[in-house]
Amino acid sequence: MATKDKKEATRTTIEQLNEKLSSAEQNVEHNKKLITYSVVVIVILAALGLGGYYYFQSADNDALEAVGKADIEAMNGNDSIALKLYEKAAKDNSGKYANRAELEAALILMKDNKAAEALKHLENYDTKDAVVGALAQVLKGDCYVDLKKYDDAINAYNDAISTAEGNKFITPFAMYKKSVVLSAQKKNSEAADVLKAIKDKYPEFTSSSSLNISELYEKAAFEANGKK
After folding, report:
1. The whole model's pTM is what?
2. I need a surface site. Which of 11, 33, 109, 130 has the fewest CB within 10 A?
């Protein structure tokens, strides 16, 4: 029962981060006006420390219109239609709008448990932003976990840690995800080291997260000592 609860908690946290990742690039210009989807997006963006929205300048009206149509379908809950539109926008265009379309398509596919397809879009996605880029790498790691490619997952989480540049929430979250995979691989000593680093270096995350990092560390350390 405890294992089931832990899995559900982890999945919930993943879904929350995916929502934040989508929200971070979910702002589009329509008729030269910024559209915000909800007040919740503002709260999420502030929590991520982005300090504002992505203002899309009118550089490619065709790409902007294509992604905007997909956004509307996604807002209305028509994920299957939105996915097709995002994929078409990504294929037919280039630049920042097509780039965001890749990310949005990946998020929909991950929600549908289509990790392999989502991964293809994430491979095409590129951003220099530390927060969004790191979250994209976390999502890539999640895809690899679903595909049981655990070494690739760890590499993706390591990339997320590097990209996050010490972000007080994203960095320890990526570290936590890495520790989960290490534990699954029975690399308990390495998992314990990662969890201890979270506990020691990121007290804000430890205190605000629903995850009990201290308890997870003690368990991993106990398992590691038991193997010696």
Report:
1. 0.72
2. 33
| 75, 116, 151, 160 from 145: Cα distances, Å | 28, 11, 9, 15
Tokens for 53, please give them: 């929205």
State phi, psi for 34 to the nearest 5 degrees. -75, 130
Beta bridge partners of 33: 30
Rg (CA), the chain: 18
Q: Does residue 165 come out as left (phi exceeding 0), alpha (psi in the -120 to 50 range) or beta? A: left
According to DSSP, residue 77 is labeled T
Residue 60 region, left (φ>0) first, then alpha (ψ -120 to 50), else beta?
Answer: beta
Contact 111, 117 (CB under 8 A): no
DSSP state, residue 39: H
CB atoms closer than 10 angstroms to residue 206: 18
